[in-house]
Amino acid sequence: MHDFTRRSLLQGGTALAAAGALTGPALLDFAKAWAQASPWKAEQGAKLTVMRWKRFVPAEDEAFNAMVAAFQSATGTQMNVFSEAFEDVQPKASVSANTGSGLDMVWGLHTLPQLFPTKVLKMNDVADYLGKKYGGWTDAAALTCKQGNDWLGIPVATIGGYMTYRKSATDKAGFKEFPKDFPSFLELCKALKKNNTPAGFALGHASGDANGWLHWMLWGHNAWTVDKDDKVIINSPETAKALEYVKALSETFIPGTASWNDSSNNKAYLAGELYCTANGISIYVAAKDDPTKKEITEDTQHALYPVGPIGKPTELQLTVPILAFNFTKYPNAAKAFVAFMLEKENFDKWLTGSRGYLTHTLNAYEASPVWTADPKNAVFAQASKRALPASGIGKVGEKAATAIADFIVVDMFANYCTGSKDAKTAMAEAERSLKRIYR
């Protein structure tokens, strides 16, 4: 009923051949040797149904397919992997968690495992194995998946979102270098609008893009949803300043951002309608792969997010953790698959396949060749190390995950920027929503 880009993947030997998935005998030889030595032996007749987010970079899909095929062949585990749009992953995962059926594993977004801490298979042994072998985990990535000393899932990667912009447009706007602070960034966006080369950032329910850049804006003004003790503090003078700033910024945007999802800015940028946005490297990769987009490819540059009044990076990057439900009949196969995903023989190829779209969460992969293959890739290597957890300064857990999934911060900004609410009302509504979660 599903496919890998909404098609059924790897259902037996015929699908293996059809997928053309293995990159060569070396990968299969490695997989077989790994399966023999692995601490986790897949159960006899194991079958895993895995849901993941829909890929934005085709080469990442191909590298993932190859890895899944090798794992299936080496362990005998039947793999049924299908993909869903970003915004559909969490609701579908919640259905499985609530019914105790349908899925064995989910490769999701942000703090997804924290939404159902009593329904997931603890991954402490997998996290310890990988962390010791590959230089430890980045702080924000580890916090994303941990509850106390328990790992509720494994942070496979971070999809780094940074500034994607047309250099010719920012040069014409009078900025030879991309701004490094909020005031200069606003001035750039005003100049881009004046020159009919506008910026645009999602104000709709874009799970990755909107949550990412609007939390960066909130935190950059030293405004937070909750404090270190999880007391709700969203209704503050700092939040009011963040709202005013983002409204001024939104007035420079290309029309339609209030309804944007996670693919909208990609399409607008590649159509030549958008000249500055926040995104993963996928826009640049898509342009490179399209001979008709040569001008956009050569003109595109990337930059770190400007820093707000707080004076330090305050980035919510898109961690993509994988979890296994504790009602799976095949826990050993699930753990083995997760560990196999992040072994060097797979992961370096996977990072290369993603072409910088995925960023490592294990420190050893800082040396991955993908970060030097193209100078325009380099900025994305910093994503996981510069990120804060989705809870900001609060406690990571189910409540913070719920606040992200419910778009509370996104809706607060969108309501004010679109004029449907004044600042006082927008903050008060966000405060009420957060207090229902943090009661």
From TrEMBL:
It is found in: Periplasm. InterPro entries: Bact_solute-bd_prot1, SBP, TAT_signal. Coiled coil: none annotated. Signal peptide: none annotated. Keywords: Periplasm, Signal, Transport. One of its GO terms (cellular component) is periplasmic space. Its main location: periplasm. The keyword Transport applies. Belongs to the bacterial solute-binding protein 1 family. This is ABC transporter substrate-binding protein.
